[in-house]
């Protein structure tokens, strides 16, 4: 039997829902957590590694999840980005005057450790599913963190504008024969984008998380390959993009199964209303080329909890579901999310065009940004604090 008198019912089972439930509980709110039923047989673990920025790590630190998660995380000291015609851009932690540019974090460990922390959260009660369907309970505020396919968002009649890129993001773990030295590497290959994120497993110094975004048909063909043929295709793509690649990363072998996700740019038409609010991928979806989707979702969590706390202190007559309070959250989050969506979408289109003049211009542009300190710093700061 579920109690009543909840301030917030958090609906969703991913990192955004769990971070929100933990964060609200830590601030003294009574939380009902409506999660999806456990699958009868657990699926394969998520092979993705997430690049998390300073703001996301700060939130995980405050939620006391970071000390355990750090064993499954690797700091990035430098990012090296290659264009498709001698364009290059690099960012270093030293230049940006930070200890690291980002942390590369194991996606499955993040979700597991958030789930473990929730078992000990004092003000969080799990709402049992009804049969095989998740169920919500009455609360002043329903926080919808159900990801891009949210049914609750649809049942409230909130539109979700979605532009399918026709690309898939292929992810896997790799082991290299040379140490990664904390360097994240990305190649804009037109039309695909290939990223190697330095990671600490299985080899503490020489593993990578692969994120390779490609047209769907090519992704499907790659997914169907046996491991040795996939490794060969990856090697060929790296050598084509950069003759130095083999000397930088060595030979790469698969250290996990390969998985893929369809990629899209999406945005909910409204983010809040009386008694409800959207967070994470339920509100917005961006291309993973800048590794920002979850960073945006965790920044949503941080902002919503701050806005609710401020309203409780200054206007105690307002309930958490008060539409004016929630509109403040939506206003604060819309600009950074829009800016990131425009940046990733713009870069993607710029590098998808095969025409020769554009190819020259985009590579020249990269080299110019490399030498323009303030613009480079602005780009880095956007990524560090979404
Ligand atoms: C290849 C790839 C690489 C990426 N790399 C990065 C990266 O480096 N950095 C980064 O910041 N982001 C990255 N992202 C984006 C990141 O994965 C997402 O932004 C993030 O997972 C969104 O979290 P979420 O909790 O909002 O949604 P989800 O992770 O989709 O979780 C929502 C959960 O809620 C469940 N659910 C649905 N309906 C209900 C319901 N009615 N009740 C209860 N539960 C429900 C769903 O089953 C799901 O488990 C990447 C994405 C891809 C595809």
Individual helix count: 13
CATH topology title of the domain at 6-75 and 106-162 and 265-352: FAD/NAD(P)-binding domain
Number of strands: 18
**Radius of gyration over C-alpha positions, nearest whole angstrom:** 21 Å
Average pLDDT score: 90
- CATH superfamily placement of the domain at 6-75 and 106-162 and 265-352: FAD/NAD(P)-binding domain
Amount of helix: 40-55%
How would a crystallographer describe the biggest sheet? 9 strands, mixed
Poorly predicted ranges: none
Strand content: 25-35%
| Hetero groups | flavin-adenine dinucleotide
Overall geometric form? globular
Helix/strand structural class:
alpha/beta
- The N- to C-terminal Cα distance equals 39 Å
- Which CATH-level-2 architecture of the domain at 6-75 and 106-162 and 265-352? 3-Layer(bba) Sandwich
In CATH, what is the class of the domain at 6-75 and 106-162 and 265-352? Alpha Beta
Structural description of this entry:
- The chain is α/β, with parallel strands linked by helices.
- Helices cover 40% and strands 26% of the residues.
- A hairpin with a 2-residue loop joins β16 (272-273) and β17 (276-278).
- The model has no long low-confidence stretch (mean pLDDT 90).
- Flavin-adenine dinucleotide binds next to α1, β3, α6, β10 and α10.
- Flavin-adenine dinucleotide (FAD) is lined by residues 11-17, 34-36, 48, 50-51, 134, 145-147, 150-152, 169, 171, 211, 261, 280-281, 288, 291-295, 297.
């Amino acid at each position: 039997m579920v109690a009543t008198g909840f301030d917030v019912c958090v609906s969703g089972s991913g990192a955004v829902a769990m971070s929100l439930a933990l964060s609200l509980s830590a601030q003294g709110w009574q939380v009902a957590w409506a999660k999806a039923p456990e699958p009868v047989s657990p699926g394969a673990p998520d092979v993705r590694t997430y690049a998390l920025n300073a703001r996301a790590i700060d939130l995980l630190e405050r939620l006391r999840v970071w000390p355990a998660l750090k064993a499954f995380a690797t700091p990035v000291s430098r990012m090296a980005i290659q264009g498709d015609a001698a364009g290059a851009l690099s960012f270093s932690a030293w230049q940006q005057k930070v200890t690291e540019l980002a942390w590369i974090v194991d996606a499955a460990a993040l979700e597991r450790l958030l789930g473990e922390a929730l078992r000990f959260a004092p003000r969080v009660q799990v709402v049992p599913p009804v049969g095989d369907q998740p169920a919500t309970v009455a609360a002043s505020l329903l926080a919808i963190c159900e990801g891009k396919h949210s049914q609750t968002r649809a049942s409230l009649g909130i539109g979700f504008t979605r532009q399918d890129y026709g690309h898939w993001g292929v992810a896997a773990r790799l082991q290299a024969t040379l140490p990664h030295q904390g360097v994240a590497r990305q190649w804009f290959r037109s039309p695909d984008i290939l990223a190697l994120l330095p990671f600490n497993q299985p080899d503490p110094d020489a593993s990578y998380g692969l994120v390779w975004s490609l047209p769907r048909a090519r992704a499907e063909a790659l997914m169907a390959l046996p491991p040795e043929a996939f490794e060969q295709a990856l090697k060929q793509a790296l050598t084509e993009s950069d003759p130095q690649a083999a000397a930088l990363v060595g030979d790469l072998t698969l250290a996990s199964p390969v998985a893929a996700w369809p990629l899209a740019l999406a945005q909910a038409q409204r983010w809040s209303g009386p008694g409800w609010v959207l967070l994470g991928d339920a509100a917005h979806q961006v291309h993973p080329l800048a590794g920002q989707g979850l960073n945006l979702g965790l920044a949503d969590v941080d902002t919503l909890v701050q806005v609710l706390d401020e309203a409780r202190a200054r206007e105690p007559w307002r309930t958490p579901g008060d539409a004016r309070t929630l509109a403040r959250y939506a206003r604060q989050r819309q600009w950074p999310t829009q800016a990131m969506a425009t940046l990733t979408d713009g870069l993607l289109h710029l590098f998808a065009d095969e025409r020769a003049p554009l190819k020259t211009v985009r590579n020249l542009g990269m080299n110019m940004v490399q030498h323009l300190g303030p613009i480079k710093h602005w780009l880095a700061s956007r990524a560090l604090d979404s």
